[in-house]
Design a protein that fits this description.
Layout (H helix, E strand, L loop, with lengths): L1 H39 L6 E13 L4 E14 L4 E13 L4 E12 L5 E11 L2 E11 L4 E4 L3 E5 L2 E5 L1 E5 L4 E5 L3 E4 L7
Antiparallel strand pairs: 1-2, 2-3, 3-4, 4-5, 5-6, 6-7, 6-8, 7-10, 8-9, 9-12, 10-11
């Protein structure tokens, strides 16, 4: 009986020693791997944070509620006060919960001013108006979306295209300039 107990204790000791050796050996391997990754990063890196599946929200005072961003990836560059987002859904929300939606592949947020620059192919909608274009700029303090590149505004009763566009989301005003083209659908008329 004593021989069996001793044999069991020796076997358990060997198993425990093997497990500890394996665990400690792998832990030091992981530590070395992590250290090499940290050393591979530039020592004076401006990147403060990099994240995936990000949700950013800014609430504004007074009559405008703010904006909400969903992004596949985000990179915060501290020295430039920028948050660079990729794969973006951008929503502007009014006090009475009306929403302007803009989708873009790239977006940059100024973390101080809260201004937003959407870059690349952009599509969106507000008040039954579909927006198509490139390179939109949203001025946070004025709640205005503007573009100096070709933008198209589609609605069931009209289609507008312009080279320069300014949309005052808060006051629901649109100003078009530079090569403005328009098509209006008259009720009861066929095109």
């Amino acid at each position: 009986m004593i021989k069996i107990r001793t044999y069991i204790y020796i076997c358990l000791g060997i198993i425990l020693a093997a497990f500890m050796f394996y665990y400690i050996g792998n832990k030091s391997f992981l530590r070395k791997k992590t250290t090499s990754i940290v050393q591979a990063l530039p020592k004076e890196s401006n990147v403060a944070l990099e994240a995936q599946n990000v949700s950013l929200t800014e609430i504004a005072p007074k009559s405008f509620r703010g904006w909400h961003i969903l992004s596949k990836t985000a990179l915060f560059i501290k020295s430039q006060n920028e948050i660079i987002c990729k794969g973006v859904i951008f929503n502007l929300i009014t006090k009475n919960n009306q929403v302007a939606n803009l989708n873009s592949e790239n977006l940059v947020v100024n973390s101080k001013t809260k201004d937003i620059f959407l870059k690349g192919a952009i599509n969106g909608s507000f008040d039954d108006i579909e927006l198509l274009g490139e390179d939109f700029y949203y001025k946070f303090d004025k709640h205005v979306i503007s573009s100096k590149s070709k933008m198209q505004l589609k609605h069931p009763s009209f289609n507008l295209t312009s080279q320069n566009t300014s949309i005052d989301v808060k006051n629901k005003k649109i100003v078009l300039s530079g090569r403005v083209e328009s098509v209006f659908n008259m009720p009861g008329k066929q095109q």
